[in-house]
Structures are given as C-alpha cells and as structure tokens.
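Input.
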Amino acid sequence: MSTETAAAPAPTPAKEPQRSGLPSWVVQALVSLSAIVLALVVGAILIIVGDAQVQKAVGYFGAAPMDTISAAASAVGQAYKTLAVGAFGGISPISESLTQATPLICGGLAVSLAFRTGLFNIGAQGQLIAGAILAAYVGFAWHLPPVLHVVLALIAGLIGGALWGGVVGLLKARTGAHEVIVTIMLNYVALYLLQWLLTTKTFQRPGRTDPISPIVDSNAQYPKFGDTRLHVGFLLALVAAVFVWWLLNRSTIGFELRAVGANADASRTAGMSVGKAYVIAMLVAGALAGLAGTQQVLGTDLPLTDGVAASVGFDAITVALLGRGTPIGTVLAGLLFGALNAGGLQMQLITQTPLTLTTVLQAVIVLFVAAPALVRSVFRFLPKERGAGAVLAKGWNG
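Output.
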C-alpha cells in the first residue's frame, strides 16, 4: 500500500464581485439618461390619463380598442413633438431654451459646490435675491458709461450673493448651526427684505404704487444676441462652470473643499481648517447664485420685482441633483431643464397640455436619479458604479 497521500486540492479563490469596466462617470451618465427615459414614460401616462379624446375612446374600448390606443399615441406624440419643437425648433426656441437655462446653471453650480464640501445649500433662492437687489440698485440708481456700468452691476450682484451665502458658512464654522435651517430662514429673510425695499422711495419706481423698481439703465444691461432674449449672461454661466471645475480639480483650495466634504474629521486631523472650508465654499456658492440674480435683473427681467427669483433657486437643487454635483453635469442638466421650461410653454399653448407637466417631469427625473437601484431594476443592462461612485450614492461627499 502506497504511503503517499494525495495532495489536497488547492482552495478555490472566492470570486470577486463583477465590476463594470466602464468609468464611473459613464455609468452615472447612463443612469441619468435612463432616468430621463423613465420620466418621459411617466409623463406619457399622465398625458394619456388627462386627455379628453382618450377618455372618450375608453368609453367604448370593448367595441373598438384600437381607437383608444390610437388616441393615446396621438396625444403623447403631439405633446412631446410640440415640446421638442418649442425647445429646439429654430433659432428663437433654442435661444429661449438657453435663456431659461442660464440662471439654472449658475444656481445649480452654487448648490453643487456646497454639496462637494459636505454642505446642503438650499439657500440659492435667497442668495439669488440678495445678488439681484444689489445688481439692480447699481443698474438703475447709478448712471455710468457703458461697459463700466454693467461690470460694476455684475460685481455688486456677486458681492450680494457672496455675503448672503457667507453668513451661512460663518455660522456653520463658528457655531455649528445646520446650514439647512439657516439657508431656509435666509430665503425668507431675503424675500421679505426685497418686498419691503420695493415699498421704499429708493427702490420703488416713481409714479407707481405697485412693488416694482425703475428699469435698469441700458448701459448696465447684458448685451443680447440679435432680437432674442438670450444675453451675455449665458456665456458667463459657462465661464462659471469652467471656474468651478478648475477650483475643485486644479486648485489647492478645491482639494481642501473636496477633502472636507469627503471626511471632515479626517481633514481636521490632517491639519485642514474645516471652518475655513465651509466659509469659502458658501462665499463662492453665494457668489454663483448672485450671478444668477444678475442674469435675471440685468438680462431677462430688467425691473426688480418680488418675483425676480421665481423658482430658480429651488429648481437649482434639482439641476444639481441631476448633474451629480459636477460642473459639466450641472450645465447639461440646466440645459435640459431650460429646454423643458421653454418647450412646455409651447406645448401648453398648442396642445392644452398643462405646463405643470414639465414640472412633474423634472421631479420624476430627480426621483429616479436619486434612486439608481430602482433605475437598474428596470434597465437591467446598467452596470453598477465602482470606485468613488456617484455623488448621490455617497451622500454628496464625493
């Protein structure tokens, strides 16, 4: 009998979880695009449910089912076709889409930059209003030569937004006050301050009793492109996006901001000033929102009113969410939402589809982007993210 014993088989190494070979940003883009597709499907269902012709055809569905299907397809097709034409069907629609996107991009950048520093800045609305107040005042109260006037009005808007945002960063750094609570309160303070100012002789237009300011001098207005409403503020929005990219990825300050956002305790242990990072982040974020304010009062809505911010500051949060907290993503998301806003007006005018449908589409897009696992359960071909992953998946600390 042989004394040799059979060699024990080598243990089978545990299989590592399969990872996608695609870069993380590609996976994030696929998830975002899939979320848009799902949102359009949800929108189509809402259009079908609310269409009068479809409701009529449903009454005799058993006798002629194809009538219901045809009416549903016609309603959805007509609505989305009109939406697309209203957003991209010529120079005028495209320029209007870009005009609508301009303040959304800057507001989205303001929210995204704070997110990357670990702060939830939902105060872009108030920062926008603060910037608009100072920019409009310089625009209608001062009388200066061309170029100089618009530059000073722009700087005033940046300062106004930066100061309003800087208050949040300072309170966070010195007292630990939660930025969500502070920014919510400052949104109301800015709005009520604006409403009060528009009742004073300094801001109220002479001869008027309603809350409206004098029109900004022509020397302080952003130059427009041709006969459209699109103005130079759009180019400034793109410059702002490049600046934020450089700040976050190519500067020492940006490295500290991202480090604090990833782990404030570790950054503090490494010798970084977390409080300083919070203040800088909110100063820059406020200035970006203030830039959006100047785009409103110096480019689109020349007189200052209490509706100058509309819902831009709050829409900017959804833009930042869809853009995954990155400058390029924020620009693309702003362009998408601008197109939805511009095309939605045309859709309502021609097909009587409520404009609120575009708001629903925006909300549903963000809902799906915030739940990537849900999107992957529908589109099973989508790979999982690897490495740092999406900003959303990491609590906006990426």
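The two ends are 65 Å apart (CA to CA).
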